[in-house]
Amino acid sequence: MGSSHFPISSSLFFIFDIGINDIGVFNMSYKKWTDEEIQFLKDNQYKSIKELSLLLNRSKSAIDLKGRKLGLKFYTESLILNHEELEKFKILYPQLKRKQLKDIFSNLSYNQIQELAFRLNLKKNHKLKYCKCTCCGVEYEYTDQNFLTKLNHKKCRNCRNLEQNITEYYNKYGIILDSKKYFFTYSIIQWYDFLFKTPNGKKIKFIPRELLNNENLAILFKHVLNLNNINTRSQILKLNKKFLYENKICYKINKQEISIYDYINITFPEMNIKLWEMVRTPNNYFDKEDNIIDALKWVVINRNISEDNVLGGALTSTLFRKLGLRMLVEKFNTMDDIIIFYYHKILNKNIKIEDIYKSRKLLSKDGTTICNSTEEVLVFDFIKYTMNLNIKCISTQKTKSFYNEKYNEYYYPDFSLEYLNRIIIIEYFGMYEKNPKTKLYIEYKNKTFRKIEYYKSRKDIYFIDLYPQDIRWDYKGVKNKLASFFMFNFNNNIK
Ligand SMILES: [Zn+2]
After folding, report:
1. Which of 1.10.3470, 3.30.420, 3.40.1350, 1.10.287 is the CATH number of 374-490?
2. CA 100 to centroid of ligand 1, rounded, Å
3. SS3 of 427, please?
């Protein structure tokens, strides 16, 4: 055997077919088969009998006989694949189509490819990865979702459904669908009308989802509003789910119901309607901080509220309720918490509760005492800083209360002064009017009298009542009342 016949030196990996005469047939035929030889035969079925005969130094008939006994099928054709090519073939064969293999292994015929694969016990990877739909020509992943894979269908499910639908719509309703335009054969309004009547008199149950894009939903919603004579913003804000039901426009997109709010936003984006302006805000809408921020920004812009006014008390619960934000208010303990939240999250400023009172002029000069009204602050600061008395504001702290048994009422007086182990209660009756006209002021006057009667009846305390006129003319009344009180009770002069 001349190695010059082979283009590549490692002849072991060559499948060849050269005219070689039987060598030593007679001698070799009696040689016992070793386990190594048998294994070699099993491992090299892709080689031809001739080659094996050469490699094992046995006759062709001996190889053939042994092979049959072992159930082996040796390769008989002539072909040339070197080791690398062979390994490549093993990898590529399962993945590629016949044509692709032929292109790569151009020196092999189709038959040789098949034969070699058979010899090597290679199997086609039958699981298609992608498949071009024979109908629409679109290539999809070959999954059960896209094709009826169990039945080996090559027509995509979309196309199959389409064909079925076209037949069904015609048989059931007499609706003729163009095979190209399909559902778009008719406008959204025509489909809407089919909900009430079709060519054969039956009603369709719903508009095909393919039609339900935003553009069509807007057309549909406008159409339904027209049918119901709804054309103002306030009318639209009053719409609810029932309206959708009654007008047969309840639909889901991606399992999400299209709400009345969605319809409005799709149809009238320029109206910029906020969810809380609708009849009902969803229960947990304000669980999301972003929604709270969104709403607060909207209130401030909508009502043209300046930063100072936010702090100064422009954000009231009455305002929020009026704007449909009751549920937002309920997320906070107090309106002050909303203001702090607003400053923190929207203006990126940290403020304290004292800042709020200060801005509302409810904070004393001392920086800590909070009063109920601006006038009380004035009274407090005058007594504390001008008259230099150690006055305390006790109403906002609610630390001291008095119980009026006669009327079953609790009182939280505004201020107290301690002097010689006695307590002076000072009340500022800011809403007191001599001749009150409204119910509120009449009741306030009555309560003022009840308080005075009560405090004066207590022998353990002294009582001073102050009124708005007492702070006029540079606190003339306050000065006089306290001065005469001290002169009378303690014979003490105050300048
Ligand atoms: Zn298709």
Report:
1. 3.40.1350
2. 25
3. strand
